[in-house]
What we know:
Blueprint: H1 2-10, E1 16-22, E2 25-35, E3 43-47, E4 50-54, E5 57-59, E6 64-69, H2 72-77, H3 81-108, H4 115-131, H5 137-149, H6 154-180, H7 188-209, H8 211-216, H9 219-225, H10 228-243, H11 248-267
Antiparallel strand pairs: 1-2, 1-6, 2-3, 3-4, 5-6
Amino acid sequence: VAAMMWFVFTLIDFEDRLVTLDGQTVVAEQVVEIVGDWRADPLQIVQDGEEREQPASVQHPDGRTVDVRPGFFSYLRNLDVGWFVVGCLCFVVTIMIAGTRWWWLLRVNGTNVRLVEALRFTWIGVFFNTVFPGSTGGDVVKALYIMKRCPGQRAQTLVSVIVDRILGLGSLALLGAICVLFALDRFATIALGIWGVILGVGLVGVVSFSKRLRQVLRLSWLLNRIPDRLKGSLQMVDKAIFFYRDQRLVIGLSLLLGMFNHVLLCCA
């Protein structure tokens, strides 16, 4: 943990800098000090002991760009504490809702996991999502913790994490599909992608929950043809997924909660 925290600490730039860019490449930089609000344009900076005005970004004829990049302390000095607290509260609420939704999926699948445990594992997952590259590592860690917590119900707990992730993706796609209707002329390509995701999630749900389609695809026969080493585990996973077929209220409310959560996260 100490090593990970040190890694995060080293990525923070504490000093204000005057950065010269050639495209996206930094070719020169100099430490300066921003006087007053870092959001002003032009900025007041102190460079080589002299205070002067400096535009936030300057494009030179040779294609190079000179930008003023505030450091951590400049952000901190100009922090609006009230809005910062509101943003933090919004973020905390989104995590609590996400953890509660996952706990609900665990409970309806027959596990005896307490809400406080589900929230604890959710916050551990948030830590790994924040510190490590990517945004799915937290789900892997969360799945490992919950399977360790429920050794006799590993398939159910693993499936709950997968279903929770799918519902989160589905709710985001639904929210995007609604929003993009108001700007189809600008986001036609994005709209096709979003509706494609919704179609894909819908097909996964149909294949997973339709008894008739499962018979047509001979899913049970395929599972029985798998080597014994994997067959038992995959049959348990299939049974755990199929269990959610009769949990329409849970699935529907989870999608609505997910949409609300994404809006709240944007507010944060």
